[in-house]
Amino acid sequence: MKMTFRWFGENQDPISLKEIKQIPGMTGVVTSFLDIPVGEAWPEERISAMKAAVNAAGLEVEVIESVNIHEDIKLGASGRDEKIENYIVTMERLARHGIKCICYNMMPVLDWARSHLYYDLPDGSNTMRYEAEFIANLSPEQLAARYAAESETYEMPGWEPERMKKINTYLEAYKGMSEETFYANMKYFLDAIIPAAEKFDIKMAVHPDDPPQPIFGLPKLIISRDNVRKYLDLYPSAHNGLTLCTGSLGARKGADIPAMIREFGGEGRIHFAHVRNLKFENETDFYESAHYSPYGSLDMYEIMRALHDVGFKGYVRPDHGRMIWDETTKKGRPGYGLYDRAIGANYLLGIWEALEKGR
Ligand SMILES: [Mn+2]
Question: pLDDT: is 138 or 28 the higher one?
């Protein structure tokens, strides 16, 4: 297991590589280029400059989160072949610079969604929250406007103004699309990129839909054990794998995350794990809690034990944390402050050390 930390890149993240390097046990960062429009091939000089900066700070960069999938691909629209070609060019360039894993998602139009970015907890910290009814009463534009106002300094990945301009066109395009068509479009993509992933030896790791509930009437695909199974079976290859995100798959009440780890991890299909906790408030609503098991609804020990039992050799990151110790928007994107993620990472490393030594 390699512990990593999400870093949004130079000029995109107030947290420095030096700060990340000082977190005990941190081997590397997981990053992306938020400014490159989705669907375009990533310039090689950007990749090499980023890698040089990360390595100079004493950190590795072996995982990209994310190389996003253009809507034309998800929709099966006419422009998809060109975007798939660009995707493969990006994969080849990343492989040349030592990237071993690409995280991506198949969420239609919208990336992740939350009702609140800074929900106050009784201890004076704040965190992201999902309240289904709150979102049901907003239009996508209203939700995007809330994010823009709340997050101030940075554009929210997945909610960029450029993308939001086209949102109604996209929402219209997805209307009436059956789940089977959606899967067929996914298969078309996988049939093209997985042979390339095998050639470049890049592990593709699809991230589940977050939250695992339909919003704005959009179809949701990768939300459960059965749907993950179906997606992985579209192209049986170790290079067609999963980002096991406990906070996304675990946001469906009753989801058995350790069982999913044993099933998919046992088959060598989990390449990257986002490990975080959440606290259910009712059947659908939750907030993102501290990682420590008693503070949330997921058992971090059982999750790490399942990863350990399947001999997990991939990458882990602590995923989201709360904003604590007076962190503000100037010190981190929502969910991506420094301190709570550093605490979470070391809590997970502590569990892992105990598992290793208790073997
Ligand atoms: Mn995640």
Answer: 28
**Beta strand pairing call for 286-287 and 126-130:** antiparallel
Structure tokens at 242: 């999963």
Bridge partners, 103 (sequence order): 65, 205
The Cα-based distances of 239 to 126, 187, 202, 284, 333 in angstroms read 38, 14, 7, 33, 31
CB 6 within 8 A of CB 57: no
Which amino acid, 112? W
Q: Is 308 annotated as catalytic? A: no
CB-CB contact of 256 with 225 (8 Å): yes
Residue 233 tokens, joined: 């079976």
Mean pLDDT value of segment 303-328: 95
- Alpha-carbon distance of 222 to 203, in angstroms, equals 18
Catalytic residue (one of 336, 339, 340, 347)? 336
CA-CA distance, 165 to 37, in Å (whole number)? Answer: 14
* Whether residue 209 lies in the annotated active site: no
Residues whose CB falls within 8 Å of the CB of residue 297, separated by 6 or more in sequence, listed in order: 250, 277, 278, 279, 280, 286, 289
Q: What are the distances in angstroms from CA 184 to CA 88, 148, 152, 180, 235?
A: 19, 34, 39, 6, 12
Q: What is the mean pLDDT of residues 324-351?
A: 91
Domains, the chain, ordered by start: 2-357 (3.20.20.150)
Q: How confident is the model at residue 166 (pLDDT cuts 50, 70, 90)?
A: confident
On whether the pTM is more than 0.90, the answer is yes
Helices (H), 157-242: 161-165, 167-174, 179-200, 225-234
Q: How far apart are CA 32 and CA 30, in angstroms?
A: 7
Query: What per-residue confidence (pLDDT) applies to 2?
Result: 98
Catalytic residue from among 116, 207, 239, 271: 207
CA distance 206 to 319: 15
Please confirm, yes or no, whether 320 is among the known catalytic residues.
Answer: yes
Q: Is 207 a catalytic residue?
A: yes
* Cα 78 to middle of ligand 1, angstroms: 30
Instruction: Read off the amino acid at residue 144.
Output: A
